[in-house]
Amino acid sequence: MKLDVIAKDQDFTGITGFGQVVDGVIGAGRFVLRPVRKSDAGLFAMYAGDRRVAEATRSIPHPLPPGAAENFVTRAMAHDGREEVWVLDGSAHGLAEVLGVISLKRMDEAQFNRDQSEIGYWVAPAFWNTGFASEAVRALVMANPQKNRTIFAEVFQDNPGSARVLTNAGFQYLGDAETFSVARNSRVPTWTYLRKLD
What are the N-acetyltransferase domain coordinates in residue numbering (predicted)? Predict the structure, then answer.
């Protein structure tokens, strides 16, 4: 399977199982989105410990403290209902077992029941520019496992690749904002996007 196929223009509707959930696993083309396992901690530590990955997120610190990957795995496996996390796993197609991570975090669910979540994702640098993030976002939106009416996303303005992933998946630009990045230890300008599903 070639890694250099960019997913932005691909029509995934014809791919068997794409965006379908079977036993908690979502079909995503060249890989699946599966629940986090304890054995993922080592690769999470290696990938999330990369400054480029950490600085593209709000919450991953750099350097990554000892035990941070294991704590992330424990939280992801807790299934507290607020956030669901999936691993981009390409092992069934001859790719790496962990290509990246994608998540949906519920927004104001208990208080307002708005059926809204925020999507977040990162892909390991070795797999950048392969279309994996686009495939993952499209599969998760198609599956809509939380039965959302709206999914929001936020990307740093110095990361236009992530913005393209969102627009290619049908997200609409909502506006500019800023947020704090732990790895950068500063506030960073962001672009906010939304995708309506109802």
Answer: 97-198
